[in-house]
Design brief:
By secondary structure, the chain is mainly alpha-helical. The chain is built from 17 helices and 5 strands. The strands form 2 sheets. The protein has a 3-stranded antiparallel sheet. Strands 1-2 form a two-stranded antiparallel ribbon. The longest helix has 30 residues. The model has no long low-confidence stretch (mean pLDDT 84).
Length: 419
């Protein structure tokens, strides 16, 4: 009602004031009747944050877009909650650590369709592929939520899509719908074959949607190549060195995040600035994680011993912080592979000189990763947070994840220095 009764600037003050009130009252027990729905829910903090973010993103667009965001939260999310409580013939599954239901998702999708029918401009609603994309995206933002975070993921995600697509042609959305289905199927198979954990496969799915939906095909190919080549060489290493892959733990969500976080950050920066430098930094970080993984998996296949950077003595190949001739050559080839792929994917941006700078940046970063693995990782393992012996068996941040993030980030620093 306020979106019709007040002006945009007045509405911004109301939303900002309500957000401050929500955060200011959350710590006090006398306001529990406002905030506490379930013990582990932070929904009343996510809600104002999501509404404020969506309003700021959509401020220069017609108010109908913001009304859709509000109604998805107040109507669709509520219907999903009610429908999810129906137990007869309902199908339940877990995503992002919380139980979801088929009836809940259907209720959300149907009410979202009704809201889009009432408020979307005709140019969008009359395009079937466009409409399906919005409904599927809305359902996805509901699926990935936990502890009430759908109050943030739904408004923020839909607002970003509205903002990104308002001035674009809707023709590409048929392709995006097919892509989403393919990503969902692929992520599920990665989980079924124990290559990724449940949360890890969900993160990979969301990463794919970001790369294909918000960016474009050339941004996704280097990441896909990194992952497929990593799986391939991991299998070879396990076969040659008689490791039991079936009994090993699948890569969890933090491992997926550690290998992709810097690349996501630089690609998002490109979206905001359109500065080609961020293409180079994106490619450098992907080349770094590829170089490091190839070195870790190929090195032990050809070399039984390696040089430990912790004490500069020889040790068994494959130890953290170890380097070998075969591993170093593999790192160089891995970094060059990403560089040459992006050279052809971004022909107007990446020159021969940039190609070699990317190769060197990723290659040097693999040594930084080894140095950090030799000196920083043992220190972190002594900290209380990382003291759990089963830390690699659960969805928890590990010292190796931090090393991978810092190692790949160092590639961007190398590139800037060499540039």
């Amino acid at each position: 009602m306020l979106t019709w009764l007040t002006g945009k600037s007045t509405l911004l003050w109301i939303i900002s004031g309500g957000s401050l009130f929500a955060f200011a009252t959350f710590p006090f027990k006398k306001f529990n009747f406002i905030h506490k729905t379930t013990y582990n829910s932070y929904g009343t903090l996510f809600y104002p944050l999501g509404i404020l973010s969506a309003y700021l993103i959509l401020y220069n667009l017609p108010l109908n877009y913001f009304r859709i965001v509000l109604l998805l939260l107040t109507v669709s999310d509520t219907v999903a909650n009610i429908a999810g409580r129906i137990t007869r013939n309902n199908i339940y599954f877990r995503a992002a650590g919380e139980k979801k239901s088929l009836f809940g998702l259907l209720g959300f999708a149907l009410t979202a369709w009704l809201i889009f029918y009432l408020f979307l401009p005709d140019k969008i609603y009359n395009n079937t592929a466009y409409l399906i994309f919005f409904i599927v995206a809305s359902v996805n933002f509901e699926i990935i939520s936990f502890r009430g975070s759908d109050n943030f993921s739904i408004p923020l995600g839909i607002a970003l899509i509205f903002n990104a697509t308002e001035f674009n042609s809707p023709d590409k959305f048929a392709f995006l719908n097919i892509t989403i289905i393919a990503l969902a199927a692929g992520s599920y198979m990665l989980y079924r074959f124990r290559l990724l954990s449940r949360a890890g496969s969900l993160n990979a799915y969301l990463l794919g949607i970001f790369l294909f939906g918000f960016l474009a095909f050339p941004w996704a190919i280097p990441v896909i190549f990194f992952f497929l080549s990593s799986v391939f060489f991991t299998k070879i290493n396990a076969s040659v060195n008689k490791k039991t892959v079936a009994g090993s733990h699948p890569r969890n969500s933090w491992q997926v995040i550690a290998n992709s976080m810097p690349a996501i950050a630089f690609s998002a920066a490109f979206l905001l600035t359109k500065n080609p430098l961020f293409i180079f930094l994106f490619t450098s970080t992907v080349s770094a994680v590829t170089a490091d993984t190839w070195a870790s998996e190929i090195g032990p296949v050809f070399n039984r011993k390696c040089l430990s950077l912790a004490d500069f003595r020889t040790g068994k190949a494959g130890i953290s912080g170890g380097i070998s001739v075969a591993g170093s050559l593999a790192a160089l080839m891995g970094s060059f592979s990403i560089a040459i792929i992006t050279y052809y994917l971004f022909p107007n941006q990446i020159s021969i000189r940039i190609l070699f700078l990317i190769t060197l940046s990723g290659f040097f970063a693999s040594f930084i990763d080894s140095l950090l693995g030799a000196h920083l990782e043992p220190v972190l393992l002594k900290k209380p947070y990382f003291g759990n012996k089963n830390i690699y068996a659960v969805e928890k941040l590990t010292p190796n994840d931090l090393v991978n993030i810092l190692g790949s980030l160092s590639a961007s620093l190398f590139f800037i220095i060499l540039w």
